[in-house]
Amino acid sequence: MPVLHRNARYNCRIIILNGKIVLIRPKLYLANDGNYREMRWFVGWTRLAQTEDFVLPLFIGRITGQRSVMFGDALISTWDTCVGIELCEELFTPESPHIAMSLDGAEIIVNSSGSHHELRKLKRRVDLITEATLKCGGVYLYANQKGCDGDRLYYDGAAMILANGVVLAMSSQFSIADVDVQVATVDLGAVRAFRAARTSRSMQAARATPYPRAKAECALAVELGDFDNSVRPTDPIAVRYNTPSEEINLGPACWLWDYLRRSGQGGFFLPLSGGLDSCSTALIVHSMCRQVTEACLRGDEQVLKDVRRCVGAGADYVPESAQELAGHLFYTCYMGTENSSTETQERARHLAQTIGSYHVDLRMDSVVAAIVALFVLVTSRTPQYEVRGGSSFENLALQNIQARLRMLLSYLFAALLPWARGRQKSLLVLSSANVDEALRGYFTKYDCSSADLNPIGSISKHDLRKYVAFARDAMELPVLDEFLNAMPSAELVPHSESYTQSDEVEMGMSYAELSEFGRLRKVDGCGPYSMVMHLLHIWGDQLTPREIAQKVRRFFFFYAINRHKMTTITPAYHAETYSPDDNRFDMRPFLYNSSWTWQFQAIDALIERIESAQDQ
What we know:
The protein is α/β, with parallel strands linked by helices. 41% of the residues lie in helices and 14% in strands. The chain has a seven-stranded mixed sheet, with helices on one face.
């Protein structure tokens, strides 16, 4: 919680025992990159292993019976052990406080954390804590926030207890329950034996910086005379990590449910195109309905209360299946035009029937024609598609009319479809643009990629394809084979036997290549020149240096001219380290020089040197 001390604002943990404040521990190292901007609000405590006196506000002092308390970096001494406090980001730093604390005698480290979910991230957390207790010895209690933060992040729980390098207990990584408590019995004698057996550790402990001690008048262990041989130390467990497909199935679904119940809306509306991306979004909503239904059937009173409020049902309503719940909460719509195929229309209809959504099938050609007719009336010029002799400008404009009308219709139907069914609720609109298309800018600004929420906006096409294959088997949905076997296409231009619109052909790069570009750009901090240097090693066996350079130049050109789209991108569930979300994760200019003059010249010079050396 925020605490103002000497007119500086600190992010603190308050340790309370029996109605008394034992210690106010300010955070030492603040998270100020990626998704976090702690330094916008707080300052870190820089006086390591030092404390000051903090005078409590009068109304707090009247409650606790205290006038002042210890404030700063200290350990807590009970009658029988010593407890250290590590806060969130501090675990991830090179000089983590648990090291110095354990050397000064802290046998238990407590970390109350707010660590958000990213695909494949949980193992990093477990490895860090395992290494901490394996190297330093001791017990580590790690609690993590759960649920949506009211923004793009989902905190995935996975509270855990470790001792001397082994995991004793861990909560589920994803759950719609608000609270999850883990308990383990640990042997403090084993901690002391573990540490005493390591001479090098004892040598470092002998010269450790002494910490101030806050006194806690209690004991955490039983005395020898009260020994109960029926109470045994908890046995280690094997940690099972969810696969990325399982994480996609569970994390965004929990995020959507938390958002829905807190927003007070009546459900979700999704433009269901018959493609893989909107299919993935629909499956995540289906997963949400499955989890919510299971919790209701278990008798979870909070979930039942939330469901009845969202659905507008009476106090005795209990959903019996995910499909039944989806019929109340999930609305889908296929918005076809003359350019749409019967295959995508049928795929959308089959999927909606399978998962139980309330589905609408419409053709919007008359609306598109009305918009074009207005332009013709004003200018006396009739735009044509490129395949019918029109220019690229006409072609793009005609595609964008269809795309942007879908956004308008989505919000119209989200507002009025429940009303048409006699319900007094509106819906949240869902988007289905993946992270690779956002990075490349391969979508229309203010089309149906613009919505209230996007559960897949930070997930790669590669991972989404694997997820759909996983869902087909895990949720027994054979209809998904139709989506897995289909070619990705926007279906915005007329098609014929000789031409079918293809996403990867239009982008000029594959989704796999986009993922590689994305990681090099964001995670490795590469610009055009250094990206070519990296890719010469990665792709050098498959492509010539000149082909690699051409791909990089093409990527950065489109990245530059489309970066402005990130300023209005729909809030998306954060799941990937290379998300281009401009809100707070990837804050960069949205106006770039798309010619990249110096960088591209340097690339050309590099390729010429390489080719010259090869010729010799």
